[in-house]
Structure formats: C-alpha cells, structure tokens
Amino acid sequence: MSPKLYGPAFFTGAASGYVRTRITSFDTAIFDRKPGPMCRVYTEPDTAQGDSGAALIDEEDYIVGFAYGRSPYDAPIQYSSWVWAEQVYIAHDLFDHETLGA
C-alpha cells in the first residue's frame, strides 16, 4: 500500500522531538517490493541532524518509513527523506516475503 500523498504523518526524532508533517512524494519503485535500490518517501523538511532512524507514521498508524536525510538548507527544493519501511522489513526478515509477492 503506497503512502497517501499530502496526507498527514508524524514522527518523534531524537533532535526534533514530536513533529507533525505531510507526505509530499515517494519513489514509485516502492511497488516492486524488492530489497534492491533503496526507495524513499518524502515529507516537508522537518527532520534535523540526529533524527536518523525515527519512524514516520501516517494517519492510519502505519509505519511508512525511517528517517534517512534532509535536503541541504540552501537547496531550491526542500524535503526530508525516509527509507520505505517495507524494504527495511524485507531486508531484516521481519515478515514473510511471500505475503509481499517478493
């Protein structure tokens, strides 16, 4: 299931604390459901250094991703990026691959 574009989400970062944000985009390769190239979900630029690994949770309480990085502060397009949670689960054998079609 893909994240809901422009849907609300939140995370609690080690540096940022509790933050409400909005999902703005995602890599369409998330539909491949393979542990290959890292797919990401993007939000408003709300993360800070030290938030890496924080869980991004959507409005339905699903973990969507884990904090990965943020655009440079002087970049023309600002965003925070999150590793697609399903890929992390597959990479760490946290559930049955066959249920994902992998």
Question: How would you describe what is shown here?
Answer:
The protein is mainly beta and 102 residues long. It has one domain (8-100): Thrombin, subunit H (Beta Barrel), CATH 2.40.10. It has one helix at residues 85-91, and strands spanning 8-13, 17-26, 40-43, 55-58, 63-70, 80-84. A six-stranded antiparallel beta barrel has the order 1-2-3-6-5-4. The radius of gyration is 13 Å and the shape is globular. The model has no long low-confidence stretch (mean pLDDT 88).
CATH architecture: Beta Barrel
Classification by helices and strands: mainly beta
Order of helices and strands: EEEEEEH
Strand % is 35-45%
**Helix share of residues?**
under 10%
* Shape label: globular
List the helices and strands and how they pair.
Elements: E1 8-13, E2 17-26, E3 40-43, E4 55-58, E5 63-70, E6 80-84, H1 85-91
Antiparallel strand pairs: 1-2, 1-4, 2-3, 3-6, 4-5, 5-6
Give a quick precis of the structure.
The protein is mostly beta strands. It contains one helix and six strands. It has one domain: Trypsin-like serine proteases (Thrombin, subunit H, Beta Barrel).
